[in-house]
Amino acid sequence: MSEAEIDRLHVIRKVLEGRFTWTQAAEQLRISRRQVARLSASVKLRGARGVVHGLRGKASNHRLSDELLGKALSALHDPLWEGFGPTFGAEKLAERHGLRVGVETARQLMIRSGLWTVSRSGPKHRSWRPPKDCVGMLVQMDGSHHDWFEGRGPRCVLQGMIDDATSRIPYAEFVDSEDTLNVMRVTKTYIERYGRPGAIYVDKDSIFRTSREPAVEEDLRQEAPATQYKRALDSLGIELICANSPQAKGRIERSFNTLQDRLVKELRLAGIQTMDAANRFLHERYLPAHNASFSRPPASPADAHRPRLPGQDLSVILSIWSQRTVLNDYTVRFNAAWLQLLPAKGLRLRPKEKVTIETRLDGSLRVRWREGYLAFKKLEQRPYKGFYATRPSEFPTKADVRGRARRAPHFTVSQRRALGLSGYTPKAWGETLPAETLAPAFI
Questions:
Q1: Domain covering 139-268+281-294, topology
Q2: In 3-state terms, what secondary structure has residue 138?
Q3: The pTM is what?
Q4: In the list 140, 265, 316, 373, which could disulfide-bond 201, CB 3.0-4.6 Å?
């Protein structure tokens, strides 16, 4: 018996002895008069054991059958279910085997069989930030690097977005890497489906924030250096917020913890091994069920998303912009290749002017100058034009020979004799041999 039960027995005995009334005993024990009457009758019949619960030391009347618990434990030991938690395991027992087992029951079964380890950690103080009131006011975005296919497929990144007001995942996608183009692609899909959010909350990755010194134009405009993604969001009127710690954007971090636990196992059960199949499964089956379980209604029913303006072309804005200088032969050097600008009617482009090369999300290139786009073709190598190319039979001048001789290889004595240059200086080569003979030495 516990100390409380001993004290209760002491008061009930005074009631049986007639020294306490039911009302006085109920007030002292802080129970009802009906409960005092029940305890008095139980003590009078069973003695001191009357204040002890009748099922102490016995199995509960609502205990599940050993057969049901054995089936549940056998299913939890399935190798495909490795790493399942109690909550997720209880859900899958009901879904796949029709075994209705409570979460705590599943937890106790898994602890006793070594499938689950109890982890205890001390409390951590965090300053709580209330969620936004409306959908679309703030969207958190991040990428989760994880072995999503558990070795069955390629390593990939889950790039996802979560609404701050509802904890709902409106869009997520498996990508091969977390780079600027993939981040822009996910943002473009989100804006096309829902509109422009008020702000996007991210970490301090180099995609979103740069530490380079400002360029001359940025310094003159007193602007901080911006990344390609920051420039795109500024054009769309979307604020970019960089978190100072992972805990600051804890909603998407906790969501990724859930996805790394549940989505990995769902992909395992479905036998998925490729990113394309994983994206179809994610959009068609997993995200609707996940949002139904883990999202919450917003404080306000209003939608803060804004529609796109007529001049906001997402294909142009959400692309990589690179400035290049036009050379004298109207070529542009870009990514170890040469782009030959083609003539166009009314074109007033001059050499030394700046053009902007747009790398679109589909991998195509566009060359923009002012408000229009220029036609171009890609060259494997820049065409070389020698000093005698206009008239091959014409001898080079002394000035041309003198300039080329500085870069020409030095001939040995035998080579000079073979070329008939014995006794001549490089300045006189152009007067001695035709250009066709000298060309290999000068090119």
A1: Nucleotidyltransferase; domain 5 (3.30.420)
A2: coil
A3: 0.66
A4: 140
